[in-house]
Amino acid sequence: MRIVIVGEGMVELSRAEGDLWRLSHGGDTLNTAIHLARMGRHVRYVTALGEDAFSAGLLRDWAVEGIDTSLIQRDPSRMPGLYAIATDANGERSFAYWRGESAARRTLSLPGADAVMAAAEQADLLLFSLITMAILDDEGRDRLIALASRVRARGGRVAFDGNYRPRLFRDQQEAQHLCRRAIAVCDIGLPTLEDEAMLNGATSAAEVQAHWQGLGAREVVVKLGAEGCLLGGVGVVPPPERLSPRDTSGAGDAFNAGYLGARLDGASPEEAAVRGHMLAGWTVMRSGAIPVRDEALAALR
Q1: H/E element holding 178?
Q2: How many CA atoms within 13 Å lie on the side-chain side of 238?
Q3: Which is nearest to 187 in space by CA: 131, 124, 234, 250?
Q4: Active site residues
Q5: Is residue 188 within 8 Å of 217, Cβ to Cβ?
Q6: Which residues contact 142 (CB under 8 A, 6 or more apart)?
Q7: Per-residue pLDDT tens over the stretch 191-235
Q8: Backbone CA torsion sign across 59, 182, 42, 254
Q9: Alpha carbons 290 and 36: distance in angstroms, whole number
Q10: 262: which strand partners?
Q11: Could you give the count of Cα atoms lying within 13 Å of 188 in the half-sphere of its Cβ?
Q12: Strand ranges inside 40-142, DSSP E
């Protein structure tokens, strides 16, 4: 199965001990890409980086994870985005971002974008998020929607995660408009109740599910955090056990990887949800949005 994921991978700073900070990488769609690659999937990541040392390090690290980096473009005038992450006593995280002029914003409007698009439309599964839509320029947004339509026309599937970060948009109306455009071209919708409450004033998972299906999404999984997820025709699928998270960073991204990987294997939505919960649960018991590679590979074995 050919998986293509579009988004932004950034340099991550996370507190290690005292005043020391650890340098790593992260980003919502990148996190999902890494989890899927660790499962042995063929994952091509579509983004743009600079030609600086940080960009070179990201490319090297992603290749080590097993991600196909052949569709990643380089913009010599820009650098990757940066974010710092902190967690409180309950494992809840907060972020500070420096990404306004990141290379990823021009991912689908750089000179090599046509070749990237031609390769990406051969995907069996295309994944992007509302954050992806937020960081792209207007040309890139139009091209991404067109890409999703072409993937579906060729018989592939499109998955869309409604990750909503208000600071990335001019206003709430812009975010709502972009989200509706993306939902209309997706087969698998992966919204979160918390995000939908902020974006659209949703008060229940059933309301979110009905909203997304009404806009065209064929299969909608509403993520409910520690409560599990809502599946159409099944009800709420709870996680296998209650946990006291160490770090909730990347939980939804891990769920996406577990769920989508299982669906590609032919699992039912309910079986896929359990797989998603298991990977998300494993992730939140470790530090960072992407736990270290050696621990992950040991868990997969």
Answers
A1: helix 172-183
A2: 5
A3: 124
A4: 253
A5: yes
A6: none
A7: 999 999 999 999 999 999 999 999 999 999 999 988 999 998 889
A8: positive
A9: 12
A10: none
A11: 21
A12: 42-46, 48-49, 73-74, 82-87, 93-98, 125-129
**Dihedral sign from CA coordinates of 277, 279, 285, 291:** negative
Q: What is the pLDDT of residue 288?
A: 66
Give the list of residues 6+ apart from residue 13 with CB closer than 8 angstroms, or none: 21, 22, 23, 24, 82, 83, 84, 85
Extract the tokens encoding 277: 């919960």
Chain mean position to CA 256: 8
44, 3 Cβ separation under 8 angstroms? yes
Structure token digits, residue 77: 């005038």
Joined tokens for residue 152: 């579906």
Of 67, 65, 68, which is closest to residue 297 (Cα–Cα)?
65
Cα-only R_g, the chain: 18
Give 297's pLDDT tier (boundaries 50, 70, 90): very low
